[in-house]
Amino acid sequence: MEKRIEEYDVAVIGGGAAGMTAALYAGRARLKTILIEKSLIGGLATYTSEIENYPGFPEGIDGTELMKLMDKQFRKFGVKVKLTDVKSVEDKQSYKIVSTFRTDYHVKAVVIATGGRPRLTGAKNEEQFCDKGISFCATCDAARYTGKRVMVIGSGDAAIEEGMFLTKFATEVLVSVIHDEGVMDANEVAREKALKNEKMKFLWNTAVDSFEGDELLKTVVLKNLKTGELMPVDVDGCFLFIGYLPNTGIFKDLITLDNRGYIITNEDMETNVPGIFAAGDVRHKTLRQVSTSVGDGAVAGYMAERYVDEINTLKNGILREGTVLCYFYNASEANDRNCLTLVEDYAKKNQDKLALEVIDVYKSDKLQKMLGAPDVPSVMVFRNGEKIFSSPFTDSVFSEIDKSL
């Protein structure tokens, strides 16, 4: 089957908080932008019953409702949304190819915001009972356990907060924690609330050894990490909240990942491949929250905009047909500004021979590095895309340019 080809300025892969924010920034910058999400716009945040630490909502807000607001906002700027799975991403230097089953999207910049998926315990029979008693979403499945006994595995923010939500439905919520008594990975506010919740019972120094049952889960066998004793616990359901694995499998041969599979970026959300950015939970960082994902997405979207602008300047300005004089300078430096006046006068006198492109490295030095320009202030001359002259700015630079023309 021959694939359809569509061209965009920016492709955002992933429709969670980070992806939607990146798309918002790119769309608002009037870049032709597409957001590709394989399943659910809003991502994992839609499964959170209450978000209390997102600025601007002093009473807290339901995760689904917050994601709906973000969804509505980014679509306002003309971003196209495609619900499909990305199969691969290729770097062609001057453009990237984002491949889906039916379409290859040729884009100038890519923002990867694919998030993660729930981590499993690795205990015996685990996969047998996924969706048959083992769940990863209290918001989705809590109601079915009304009046029943459930177990939560984990002690991080998600585990404790979702465990407290489960107490609104279940008669008892058992929490398996690998740490000593009183020690959790959750924030202090959530920890204190959980310990005061009469419906929550903590099983300290325990980990799952196996899941048992027939067609449905009936028993979680815990192992005491200090004594090795096995403790069967009868439950009606079990919720796993022990972290996530990044969705980066298709990128492992494209960009640099850390030893856990998270994407390594700098503070500008840039990966090691120019034009490919990463944002949100998929990125190597300390804190993974909706607020940090939004921050990442804002930076990634803004940097994608700058990158596209640089690519357009390169393609349609510097490397176009004819002769182009490029002046690289730092606008914050008085000497560089004075030299700019001289360059502009020279270009005006020779406008029948060449065009002028002025590159301010104070905003970004990427084009300077990409073209191998000398330290500023400096000039380069290109003819039909080929470099014919390069020099720091000197008193004799114009006469030297004349010789090269």
UniProtKB/TrEMBL annotation:
The keyword Disulfide bond applies. It comes from the Bacteria. Pfam families: Pyr_redox_2 (PF07992). Residues 8-297 form the FAD/NAD(P)-binding domain. One of its GO terms (molecular function) is oxidoreductase activity, acting on a sulfur group of donors, NAD(P) as acceptor. Keywords: Disulfide bond, FAD, Flavoprotein, Oxidoreductase, Redox-active center. PANTHER family: THIOREDOXIN REDUCTASE 1-RELATED-RELATED. Belongs to the class-II pyridine nucleotide-disulfide oxidoreductase family. This is FAD-dependent oxidoreductase.
